[in-house]
Amino acid sequence: MAYIFLGISIVLTVISQLLLKKSVFGVVDFSLPLGKLTISFLKNPFFLAGVVSFGLAFILWILVLSKMKLSVAYPISTALNLSLVAIVSYVLFKEQLSPVQMSGIGIIIFGIFLLLWK
């Protein structure tokens, strides 16, 4: 069950990052004073959904920490979050990934398999 919570936490974290990125696309005017900028974010549905997604991921992460070794859970979470955000950003936002970066993602994923090897 811990691995299921970990997987859901990772997916929610990735979703939150994508929603937060989407929330700043031409929607927010960063030249506004801080108070108005804050209100602008609070009215942005992508921002609010990103915060909720991140909050749910955090709650699941606490459950994961109660059931798994930190030395296993944290590297898996960090590596998959990094890899998935990069891949999905490439697909959704047309962000570029160089061959070296793609190779790095492959190495990271291979490292996760080594970490889980019993």
UniProtKB/TrEMBL annotation:
Question: Keyword set for this entry?
Answer: Cell membrane, Membrane, Transmembrane, Transmembrane helix
Question: What residue ranges are annotated as transmembrane?
Answer: 45-65, 72-93, 99-117
> What would be one Gene Ontology cellular-component term for the protein?
plasma membrane
Q: Where in the cell is it found?
A: Cell membrane
GO MF entries: transmembrane transporter activity
Q: Which SUPFAM superfamilies match?
A: Multidrug resistance efflux transporter EmrE
Family annotation (InterPro entries): EmrE-like, Small_drug/metabolite_transptr, Small_multidrug_res
> How does the protein's chain sit in the membrane according to the entry?
Multi-pass membrane protein
Q: Which family does it belong to?
A: Belongs to the drug/metabolite transporter (DMT) superfamily. Small multidrug resistance (SMR) (TC 2.A.7.1) family.
Please report the name of this protein according to its UniProt entry. Multidrug resistance protein, SMR family
Q: Which organism is it from?
A: Candidatus Wolfebacteria bacterium GW2011_GWE2_44_13
